[in-house]
Amino acid sequence: MPLNYLDFDYSEDADGNGTLDAMASVLPAQLPALQSEIAAVLAWAHAHWPGACTPLEDGGTWHYDLHGVQEVQSPLTLSFDEATGQLHTTTGSAAPPRTTLTLTLSGSSDFCTALREAFEME
Predict the structure, then answer these.
(1) Are 64 and 35 a contacting pair, CB within 8 Å?
(2) What's phi and psi for 34, nearest 5 deg?
(3) Do residues 59 and 105 make contact, with C-beta atoms less than 8 angstroms apart?
(4) Per-residue model confidence as pLDDT tens digits over 30-67
(5) End-to-end Cα spacing for the chain
(6) The model's pTM
(7) Would you tell me how many other CB atoms lie within 10 Å of the CB of residue 27?
(8) Sign of the CA dihedral 112, 118, 121, 122?
């Protein structure tokens, strides 16, 4: 299954354990699709490595960390008053909120290889 919103960066430690980090920031219309991708990745991991979702240092095979934030941005109109030498700002209407979700997966070499193959990560 190819991923359209999640673009994972992969790193590996000296023991061969891997970490995959992804961050995506979307407008409200794309949020359900992003959430579906995250759910698909986590459902796959739980289905293919059941009972193994525990940090590696505690004897697990894989683990994840998921965070999110929603931000509303308001554009600023900026102008410079040449006569007074001052900058003036006017706040515009707020744009739709952007939601940023981050997903970090860590796991054994076997887990990371299988995950990367399942989701066609390079």
Answers:
(1) no
(2) -65, -45
(3) no
(4) 999 999 999 999 999 999 999 999 999 999 999 999 99
(5) 13
(6) 0.83
(7) 11
(8) positive
